[in-house]
Specification:
Elements (H helix, E strand, L loop, with lengths): L3 E8 L3 H11 L3 E7 L5 H7 L4 E5 L10 H13 L4 E7 L3 H9 L4 E5 L3 H38 L8 H13 L6 E4 L6 H11 L7 E5 L8 H6 E2 L11 E2 L1 H5 L3 E5 L6 H13 L1 E3 L6 E3 L3 E6 L3 H7 L4 H7 L2 E4 L10 H15 L6 E2 L1 H9 L5 H15 L4 E2 L23 H15 L4 H8 L3 H11 L2
Parallel strand pairs: 1-2, 1-3, 3-4, 4-5, 6-13, 6-14, 7-10, 10-13, 15-16
Antiparallel strand pairs: 8-9, 11-12
């Protein structure tokens, strides 16, 4: 039988016990070290990260109060808070063992022990060690995500009056648990506003789960949001928590909520009212505790009048509304945003001292930016990638010729080549630069779209 991957340290002042333990444990685990002087424990931890430490309770002759064991237990836990320590006790020292467990030990085993008992105790301890490390990894991942989100907030900027109103509203509603509905055109930063609300809340150190409802099919809706149990349907090979469960104690952001059909709206409303979910295939109800933020670019109030969106669901999700202004409504921010994106992508693509000339800045200001901030961001990124100079000029920006009703020029062309180029740019911007999704929307395969991108220098 192959050995179990584990590093074991045995600390006891009885050489016979150490040798006996090593002889047996070396057959079961990949690394076993022994030590008869507890003073050397820190030295062992400098060289290795141990999964389990077997630690005697008494080291001084004539002493049996366990104080030595507790002292060295604390030393181990100071070195590695996730350390798994199993105390070695003499028969009848049950009270000492209980005291040690309260102090942070994982388990205890009495000597003389039976090998099967020792192996079982260590195996259980290893499972606990694995769980602790996984929890630590999840916490680290969450911190990393939070850090990434903080960096992404960099583009959630603005000095204009419309944006100052947005910031003020977020400052007021963020610390509450109120449901928030964010309205606005595509590319206006609704997702960034949702993350800013989460960051301002008491749940900021908890998870932020984002769900694009527009990308979830009707058949997968319940499984994705509420979870499922093994065997609930053909591909359900294991239990899976839904997004509501994963977001519990944190924030759940439901983007594109206006895309939900009436039957799915009804299911969502039921969960929001009851604050409970049942996984597909299970009748067991699971309590959820979320802060809900929703967003859409669709006219929900008109949809309520048309009967395509439930009024009671609208009331449930919009305790407070935040409306994101279009870029056309905040033209005062244009120069500020352009400089921000130029700095960001200059650093990303290692193109130092990039700048933009006055004529180009004026061109960008005159353009109406139907794709809003997202379109501006992608246009600048693309220009910096393709530019051969450290100064961006009007030729570096492939904007639509007919960019607004007042911007039409005499040399505007509407030939097929120009129209195809515009459609490709529009599809790329709409799909955040994802070539696969853009190709699908255009009715092309990826290779065909790549050929056109090369043809037009996009």
């Amino acid at each position: 039988m192959p050995k179990t991957e584990a590093k074991i340290l045995v600390v006891d002042d009885d050489i016979d016990i150490l040798n006996t333990a090593r002889m047996y444990l070396k057959q079961q685990f990949t690394l076993v070290q022994i030590e008869n002087n507890p003073e050397n424990i820190p030295l062992h931890f400098e060289r290795e990260s141990f999964d389990v430490v077997l630690l005697d309770m008494n080291f001084r002759k004539g002493e049996n109060d366990g104080s030595d064991g507790l002292k060295w237990l604390n030393t181990v836990l100071d070195i590695d808070p996730n350390a798994i320590v199993i105390l070695i006790t003499a028969y009848g020292e049950f009270d000492l063992a209980v005291k040690a467990i309260k102090a942070g030990a994982t388990d205890f085993i009495t000597k003389p022990w039976k090998n099967e008992k020792l192996f079982g105790t260590i195996t259980s301890a290893l499972q606990l060690r694995k769980s602790k490390l996984e929890v630590d990894k999840l916490k680290s991942t969450q911190k990393t995500i939070a850090s990434d989100l903080d960096q992404k907030q960099g583009s959630f900027l603005g000095e204009s009056e419309p944006m100052q109103r947005v910031f003020s509203l977020i400052d007021k509603v963020g610390p509450t648990d109120a449901n928030v509905l964010i309205l606005g055109e595509n590319g206006t930063g609704k997702g960034l506003a949702a993350r800013a609300l989460h960051k301002q809340s008491d749940r900021s150190d908890k998870v932020f789960i984002s769900v694009d409802l527009g990308s979830i099919s009707e058949t997968l809706f319940e499984s994705e949001l509420f979870g499922h149990v093994k065997g609930a349907f053909t591909d359900a090979k294991e239990d899976k928590p839904g997004r509501f469960e994963l977001a519990s104690d944190g924030t759940l952001f439901l983007d594109e909520i206006g895309n939900l059909s009436l039957p799915l709206q009804s299911k969502l409303l039921s969960v929001l009212q009851q604050r409970k979910v049942s996984r597909v295939g299970s009748g067991k109800e699971i309590d959820i505790n979320i802060r809900l933020i929703c967003a859409t670019n669709m006219p929900l109030y008109d949809m309520v009048k048309e009967g395509t969106f439930r009024q009671d669901l609208l009331y449930r999700i919009n305790t407070v509304e935040v409306r994101m202004p279009s870029l056309a409504e905040r033209k005062e921010d244009m120069e500020f945003l352009v400089k921000h994106f130029v700095d960001t992508y200059s650093k990303k693509y290692k193109k130092q001292n990039m700048r933009i000339d006055a004529a180009t800045m004026n061109k960008l200001k005159r353009y109406n930016w139907p794709g809003n901030i997202r379109e501006l961001q992608h246009a600048i990124e693309r220009a910096i990638i393709l530019s051969d100079d450290n100064k961006l000029s009007t030729n570096d920006f492939l904007l639509q010729t007919a960019n607004s009703g007042s911007e039409k020029t005499q040399d505007e062309t509407l030939n097929l080549t120009e129209m195809e180029k515009r459609l490709i740019l529009k599809a790329l911007d709409k799909n955040n630069g994802n070539v696969t999704r853009a190709a699908k929307e255009l009715g092309l395969d990826r290779l065909a779209l790549y050929r056109r991108l090369q043809k037009y220098g996009l």
